[in-house]
Amino acid sequence: MKASHALMLSVALLSAGAAQAQFQKPEDAVKYRQSALSVMGTHFSRLGAMANGKVPFDAQKAQEDAAVVLMLSRLPWAGFTPESQKLDSKAKPELWSETGKFKAGADKLVSATVALDAAARTGSLDAVKKSFGEAAASCKACHDSYKSK
Ligand code: ASC
C-alpha cells in the first residue's frame, strides 16, 4: 500500500469511528447506512456493467467509480447501532447476534474495495473484472447471511 493510500485509509477509518457517536436518533443511523450502501451500490453497479461487458470499458470512469466505492465501503457499518435494531429494516436478526462475523464481513469488503481501487488504477479491464468479482462475492456473502429479501 502506498503511503498516500495508507493515509486515506486511516482518515476514512477515523471518520467511520467518529460517525458512530453522531447519530441523534436511531432513525438517523438507519438512513445513514442505507444511504451509504445505496450510493456504493450505484457506483459498484456501474463498475459491474463495465466488468460484465454491458457497457464499454472506460478506464477513467472505472477509476472514479472504484474511488467512490472505496470511500463508501467504510461508512455503512457505523450505522448498525444497537439502538437501531428495533427499527424496521431489512437487517436480519442474526446481524445483531453475530456481530463478530458481521464485522469480519465488513472488513473483508473494505479489503476487497482497496484491491478494486488498485485494479482500476492500473487501467486494465482484466484486473477490474477479477477484483470486481471478488468484491461482489463479498457483498453477496453478507447479503445472504444478514439481509432479508
Ligand atoms: C451490486 C450491488 C450489490 C452487489 C451484489 C453482488 O452491484 O448493488 O449489492 O452488486 O448484488 O452480489
TrEMBL record:
One of its GO terms (cellular component) is periplasmic space. One of its GO terms (biological process) is electron transport chain. It comes from the Bacteria. Transmembrane segments: none annotated. Heme c binds at residues 139, 142-143. Binds 1 heme group per subunit. InterPro entries: Cyt_c/b562, Cyt_c_II, Cyt_c_prime. One of its GO terms (molecular function) is iron ion binding. Keywords: Electron transport, Heme, Iron, Metal-binding, Signal, Transport. PROSITE patterns: CYTCII (PS51009). Residues 1-21 form the signal peptide. This is Cytochrome C.
